[in-house]
Amino acid sequence: MKKILSLILLLGTMMVFTTETPWAASPEMLRVTTWGGNYKDTYESVIGLFEKANNVKVEWVVGSTDSHQVKARQGQADVVTLDLLHSLSGEQEGLWADLDPNLIPNLKDLYPNARHSKQTVFANLGDFVLAYNADKVKKAPTSWSDLWNPDYKRGVALYSFTASSTLSLLVLEAKKAGGSERNIEPGFKRLVDLHKSGNLLSMVSGESELVSLYELGEVWIGPLAIGRVKSLWDKGAKHIKFVRPKEGTFGLITTLNVVKSSPKKDLAMKFVNFALGKECQEAFAARNLYAPTLKTAKLPKELEGLLISGTNVENLFIPDWVQVNAAKGEWKERWDKAISQ
Fold first, then answer.
1. Are the beta carbons of 134 and 264 closer than 8 angstroms?
2. CA angle centred on 297, ends 72 and 50, rounded to 5°
3. Phi, psi (rounded to 5 degrees) for 149
4. What is the pLDDT of residues 81-117, one digit of tens each?
5. For 53, what's the count of Cα atoms within 13 Å in the CB-facing half-sphere?
6. Residues 6+ apart with CB under 8 A from 213
7. Which stretches does DSSP call E strand in the chain?
8. Percentage of residues in the chain with pLDDT exceeding 70?
């Protein structure tokens, strides 16, 4: 009798576990590289939606852009957040898997240039606009060529020579004069002329220094990251205006790649699709001032016109960064010599 009772109790216990507390499969782990601070915070504000839908736990691999590529190379990441230069370098190295449109349906709704290659996609965008002090520059500029306007003596500031905006300006001016990344001479001459004309007041390495120069009224015109324009407005500097020149602005581009060696490529592709979806894209716009690459994403009213969108996205000027990166050391040596004479 005792054996029968024990058997009944055992069966009852098994039924309780079977019907009331089923064993759920443990979530998979997906390793995604990201920068720290606000960028990671924005990811975390929406990632629960992805984790719940896919029974996955995202492990953030925080570090610098250089370290993200190293992690991919060492098989310590499944998805990497990078800039365009590092993504293209990784393509040459064979680090990335081809993106699967079947697992990333949001690809079809991106701006065309955001699908940069079979392996690299733009996640979000900032840009360097042409900022100007409306108290000093009475007529709104329309072209990067306005930096050479003789009325702006000692009124122009650029980022340092090896900064992406200055290198983009160098290549743009070369191309306008029939050159290219492989024939930089026409662009180099233009930048030297800008220096010799007396227009170029300063080349700065830090954005905070450049913002201060605009606040103090010492700089009248030059490229400035759109987020810094917003910072100036927030400080009350409403006389600082900006335009997106006819040749296009210079991109601050965040990219995504799936690591070819990842054992979880399908799940990694689904993460990329989530990062390109409305929730994630709109979160980065509202919280970080990074414009969506998803055409259907909505911008907050107060950011319309400030963040790049529509035809301005398609008009971004994007040099061949692989070629530029290979040559920029030599160009920098030439520049230092030219301005010291």
1. no
2. 50
3. -60, 125
4. 999 999 999 999 999 999 999 999 999 999 999 999 9
5. 10
6. 157, 201, 202, 204, 219
7. 28-34, 56-62, 79-83, 121-133, 156-159, 200-204, 221-225, 240-243, 250-258, 291-292
8. 93
Task: Give the CA angle between residues 26, 100, 67 to the nearest 5°.
Answer: 70
Structure tokens at 329: 């050391």
Per-residue tokens: 181: 């990344």
Q: What is the pLDDT of residues 207-263, one digit of tens each?
A: 889 999 999 999 999 999 999 999 999 999 999 999 999 999 999 999 999 999 999
Long-range contacts of 184-190 (CB under 8 A, 24+ apart): 184/327, 184/331, 188/331, 188/334, 188/335, 188/338, 190/148
| Structure-token pair, residue 3 | 């054996």
Which helix (H) or strand (E) is 3 found in, with range? helix 2-19
Torsion-angle region of residue 107: left (phi > 0), alpha (psi -120 to 50) or beta?
Answer: alpha
Half-sphere exposure of 43 toward its Cβ, with a 13 Å CA cutoff? 22
Q: String of b and e for 304-324 (b: at least 16 CB within 10 Å)?
A: eebbbbeebbebbbebebeeb
- Token pair 């240039």 is found at 113
Helix (H, G, I), strand (E, B) or coil at 199: coil
Q: How far apart are CA 42 and CA 44, in angstroms?
A: 5
pLDDT in tens, 161-211: 999 999 999 999 999 999 999 999 999 999 999 999 999 999 998 888 999
**Domains, in order of start, for the chain:** 28-125+252-314 (3.40.190.10), 127-250+320-340 (3.40.190.10)
Confidence of residue 341 (pLDDT cuts 50, 70, 90): confident
Closest by Cα among 255, 215, 249, 224 to 99: 255
pTM: 0.88
What is the C-alpha to C-alpha distance for residues 134 and 138, in angstroms, rounded to an integer? Answer: 6
Give the closest residue to 255 by CA, choosing from 297, 295, 290, 230.
Answer: 290
